Amino acid sequence: MSLTLPRNIERFLLSPWSLLLAVLLAFVLNSYSLPLTDVDEGAFSEATREMLERGNLVSPTLNAQPRHDKPILIYWAQAATVSLLGPTEFGFRLPSILAAMLWMWALYRFCLRHGDRTTALVATLAMALSLQVGLIAKAAIADALLNLFICLALFGVYDYFVAVRAGQGVRESRRLLAWTYAVLGLGFLTKGPVAVMFPLLIGSLLFISAGHWRAWLRALFWLPGWALFLAIVVPWHVMVYLDQGDAFFRGFYLKHNVDRYTSTLEGHGGNPFYYLIALPFVLLPFTGWLLAISGKLWTGVRSKLPEGDFERFLLIWFGVVFLFFSFSRTQLPHYLLYGCTPLFILLARHRLDSERRLLAFLPLILFGLLLAFLPQILEFAASRTTRPLEMALLNELTAGFADASRWLLAGFAVLVVALAFWRRLPVWQGLVLAGFLQALVVFGVVFPVVLDATQGPVREAGRVARQSGEKVVLYKLYQPSFSVYRQAVTPSGKPELGELVLVRSDRYVELQKDVAPLRIDEVYKRGFLVLGRVVAGPAQ
């Protein structure tokens, strides 16, 4: 029995059923029921909703104002799925789920071309079950789509490198190069220059390091490829210019590209050690696995065989992304994902070299203990805070972790420890099993509680406001998902007599004073939010 169970586990992990389970747990679970998060999901979703409402598929707006944060492709993708499924959470998130699934498929196929089936399966499982991939796969934002196109472009770059090494030139590789230029164009329409910069920079370092720089220059200056790229990118840029002049070019290319790298935007930045701290959380539950194999990576790079070129490519890919964003003035954890796909491949290739068991499981054990004690940590924080807003949020979170949730969090920690000490099970298999458990606990227990406390009141207030049919304003508040649930643009400002107003609970007294001698009657109140109506008469 003790030998049969590990064999059955390995048989399952190396079957397509494990990939299906990973998709269901990490990408799909509760994506249809969790409320949209502010700011990003709410902003993307509301911009898509307004685009469909206005019938303008060229220039997105947010709260009736031009939105220049991203190019058009993610909005078109969301518009397509929302048109089919309606303005639901799943409708807005489906493009990200599909992009993440295609990302898995592309990774699997790439590993098959340059490795074996087992490596392809393990790399794909590691990608799907890593914490940050699961987060963006079920988020109504552009990053899953962008990661797909960056990976497809870089897979094309390496495939061309292999063709060059085999003695082929541009003429023999036209179809491959055309495909690569096409996905560069689609990536550019998703998030702009970053989708082109990384493949070109990483490809340059790969070809120069291998002495094939002339072949790289020929590919870089292949005019049919650039013609295809421009055919994909230019038409929408012309349309948006005709629709609103140069506003998008100034807003996106200057503010959201140049300024985002050279200055801190939205409070997200800018420490050179930020991603050293973020990487362990991005890769969970596989952080320790990477540490356990790190000493083996340089051996492969030094090899003169094709395997050495492959591992050098993977490390260049990760290193370029890591260094680039480490020196950016605006930093967010999911930026690092642009360079994490090669890490998943390296984990799979060195899965039999990771027998430093305690190190491989240690970060995951610490994470499990953190989740096990999370309810107590929240209770302690709630008892110490004196700020009304923090108290409201912490009390909501504490109430959300009822007895059943607490037992599930504690059970996760116990199972992780058990997997760590089950020595008959190879390290990689234990960590992948832990990945399934992590996805189940994080997206089935933790996220529903956290998002119900932080975004549930916004969703409920939006639905109440929609049913009322009355005019609503936001008072010193930015919650774009409220407009999604209300199904109408919601302006900001001071409310007038007879209007509804959404306000944070800690600003409710300030609002009462601001509308005096009128008063606010509560229509809906939960946690940190109050939806009120401005009526005649002094405050009671």
Describe the structure.
The chain is mostly helical and 540 residues long. It folds into five domains: 1-141, no CATH class; 142-262, no CATH class; 264-354, no CATH class; 357-454, no CATH class; 457-535. The N and C termini lie far apart (72 Å). It is globular, with a radius of gyration of 25 Å. The mean pLDDT is 91. The longest helix has 28 residues, at 427-454. Helix 4 (73-85) packs across helix 5. It contains 25 helices and six strands. A hairpin with a 2-residue loop joins strand 1 and strand 2 (65-66). Strands 3-4-6-5 form a four-stranded mixed β-sheet, sandwiched between helices. It has a two-stranded antiparallel ribbon with strand order 1-2.
Descriptive labels:
mainly alpha; 5 domains; 25 helices; single chain; 540 residues
Low-confidence stretches: none
What is the CA-CA span between the terminal residues? 72 Å
Number of domains: 5
Number of helices: 25
Averaged pLDDT: 91
Shape label: globular
How big a fraction of the residues is strand?
5-15%
Read across the widest sheet, the strand sequence of neighbours is 3-4-6-5
CA-atom Rg in angstroms:
25 Å
Helix content: 55-70%
Number of strands: 6
Main sheet characteristics: 4 strands, mixed
Give me the secondary-structure category. mainly alpha
Outline the secondary-structure elements.
Elements: H1 4-13, H2 16-28, H3 40-54, E1 61-62, E2 65-66, H4 73-85, H5 89-113, H6 117-129, H7 131-137, H8 143-165, H9 174-191, H10 194-209, H11 213-220, H12 223-244, H13 247-262, H14 274-283, H15 287-302, H16 306-326, H17 341-349, H18 357-372, H19 374-384, H20 388-400, H21 403-421, H22 427-454, H23 456-468, E3 472-474, H24 480-486, E4 500-504, H25 508-515, E5 519-526, E6 529-535
Parallel strand pairs: 3-4
Antiparallel strand pairs: 1-2, 4-6, 5-6
Helix pairs in contact: 2-6, 2-22, 3-4, 3-24, 4-5, 5-6, 5-8, 6-17, 6-22, 8-9, 8-10, 9-10, 9-12, 10-11, 10-16, 15-16, 15-18, 16-17, 18-21, 18-22, 19-20, 20-22, 21-22, 23-24
